[in-house]
Design a protein that fits this description.
Layout: E1 25-31, E2 46-48, E3 54-61, E4 64-70, E5 76-83, E6 92-96, E7 99-108, E8 113-122, E9 132-137, E10 147-150, E11 156-162, E12 171-178, E13 186-191, E14 200-205, E15 211-217, E16 222-228, E17 236-241, E18 250-258, E19 263-272, E20 275-285, E21 290-298, H1 301-308, E22 312-313, E23 329-330, E24 332-339, E25 345-352, E26 362-363, E27 378-389, E28 395-402, E29 405-408, E30 416-421, E31 424-430, E32 438-444, E33 450-455, E34 463-473, E35 476-483, E36 486-496
Parallel strand pairs: 22-28
Antiparallel strand pairs: 1-36, 2-3, 3-4, 4-5, 6-7, 7-8, 8-9, 10-11, 10-26, 11-12, 12-13, 14-15, 15-16, 16-17, 18-19, 19-20, 20-21, 20-23, 24-25, 25-27, 27-28, 27-29, 30-31, 31-32, 32-33, 34-35, 35-36
């Protein structure tokens, strides 16, 4: 018989100023069984379902995990152990339709191959269905690490950033697969020097199988966009320029959002060393082969101050220096872009001294089961900066969310968990200062106003673990908290607010 502890409490408090604290209830809680050091890889292992249910892929021991579906009281609908090969990477998890999919991406550069493994589980019963496996041969003389990106609906994926094992080594290959089918749906190629360093590039695969590749050159201030249509022949190329008042040393990140069947928003962030100095956002139409708009933003002191004015903070009990407006955006990164119902695009920048893969739709590294568990280095996570643009490229609003986070040895407790419902952006964040640990911000993306701020667990002192936390509904979340004084004490809580 499983032991469950239930806590019921309801608190109503008012926050001085703009955002009130709403009532919240810890509906149920349960100890997380696993007591060893967690795998350091930062990826979603918990997915919310309707009726306050959720699925979780939980660590058990080396090469073994537990997959289960649970209700709002943490009773299991079904559970099953899954074993993985010792030479495989640690798995990832996503949901598509009525299937849970465990996905393993294992590059074996010494063997000149990439191994991909997809295992399917029925969402209702947990029954495992027939898997799909791929082995892709890599060129012997090329040491590039292959990458993989999914379409937004996870119906397709593209393998890229590698040279195929064949006579010609001057071409980079892009192979598009439909999930569950072993034969490539499309095969695209491009001259390797068009994407060679110091160029930075990113890809976007549409649910229809269209592929967009954007390469940016910080030295020459230009971008080249390459487009292959699933139902058209040949390649479309569109060039554009950007400009920053301080010459960028590198392109830090590129993010792509598809706005319509033929239109895309492309955002690139520019940096000098670890300082974010600006970004460019450009609208592209691949059918008209045209630039719809382009917008350059420089992060000078007055712009940073303007973004912070009218911002919000997690807790005023932070140290004063953490609440000061920064002179420059050191260690700020472009994390992701999100789209609301009005087709506005919200860019999210975050201060992090170590990158997290939690928000990414790309896989590109080997994640071994064996890792160093005694990493005593603390990593830091700071403020969020949000910029919202209309479909026509006009800046609507900007907003800062100030927070202070640290995490020992990895980024599992850093960053945020987002949720977009129509035009409401919700951010679940943690805070390491006194007076509350986990907060929820509701931001109206039409005008940028913060409609509410919730101190989610005012009576609990825990450190958030994102991989075992998720949104369930508009007013409920599952959070995993670690005791700050006992790292082996981990609790799952379903919280209504």
């Amino acid at each position: 018989m499983r032991h469950h502890t239930f806590c019921f409490f309801c608190m109503v408090m008012l926050w001085p100023g703009l955002a009130p604290l709403f009532a919240q209830t810890v509906f149920s809680e349960k100890a997380l069984d696993y007591k060893k050091a967690m795998l350091p890889y930062d990826m979603p292992y918990t997915i919310g379902l309707p009726d306050k249910q959720f699925v979780m892929l939980q660590e058990l021991k080396k090469n073994t995990m537990k997959l289960g579906r649970y209700d709002q009281y943490f009773f299991e609908k079904w559970e099953k152990e899954i074993e993985f090969e010792k030479n495989e990477s640690v798995p990832q998890l996503f949901l598509r339709g009525d299937s849970l999919i465990s996905f393993v991406f294992t590059p074996r550069i010494a063997k000149q191959e990439l191994s991909l493994s997809f295992r399917y589980f029925d969402l209702q019963s947990g029954e495992e269905l027939a898997p799909t496996n791929y082995v892709i041969a890599l060129a012997t003389e090329d040491k590039k690490m292959p990458r993989l990106a999914f379409s937004q609906d996870h119906s397709k994926f593209v393998v890229y950033n590698y040279k195929a094992k064949k006579e010609s080594s001057s071409l980079l290959d892009f192979e598009v697969f439909e999930l569950g089918k072993e034969t490539p749906l499309h095969q695209y190629q491009i001259e390797a020097d068009k994407l060679a360093p110091p160029l930075e590039y990113a890809v976007h695969l549409s649910p229809a199988g269209d592929l967009l590749v954007v390469a940016a050159d910080a030295t020459n201030f230009n971008t080249q966009t390459y487009f292959w249509g699933a139902k058209t022949e040949g390649i479309t190329q569109i060039d554009n320029t950007f400009f920053f008042e301080r010459p960028a040393g590198r392109i830090q990140a590129i993010d792509i959002v598809q706005q319509g069947a033929s239109s895309y928003f492309v955002t690139l962030a520019a940096a000098i060393d670890e300082e974010l100095i600006g970004f460019n956002i450009t609208g592209i139409n691949v059918v008209l082969k045209s630039i719809m708009f382009t917008y350059n933003q420089n992060f000078k002191k007055e712009e940073i101050t303007a973004a912070y004015e009218g911002g919000v903070v997690t807790s005023e009990k932070q140290k004063k220096k953490l609440l000061e407006i920064p002179e420059s955006l050191d260690n700020f990164r472009l994390m992701q872009s999100m789209e609301n119902d009005e087709k506005d695009v919200i860019l999210i920048f975050e201060e992090l001294d170590v990158m997290t893969d939690f928000h990414q739709n790309e896989t590109h590294s080997l994640m071994p089961w064996k890792f160093k568990s005694k990493n005593e280095k603390y990593h830091y996570g700071g403020d969020l900066l949000l910029y919202c643009f209309t479909e026509s490229g006009l800046l609507k609003w900007k907003k800062a969310v100030q927070k202070s986070q640290y995490s020992l040895g990895n980024s599992l407790g850093l960053s945020y968990i987002p949720s977009m419902e129509k035009n409401q952006l919700r951010l679940l964040v943690s805070e390491n200062s006194k007076g509350g640990n986990i907060y929820i911000f509701d931001i109206n993306t039409i005008d940028g106003t913060v409609s509410s701020k919730t101190n989610l667990l005012p009576d609990h002192s825990v450190e958030l673990v994102k991989k075992y936390s998720c949104w369930l509904q508009s007013q409920a979340v599952v959070v995993c908290g670690i005791s700050p004084v006992n790292a082996s004490k981990r609790t799952l809580m379903l919280v209504e607010f």
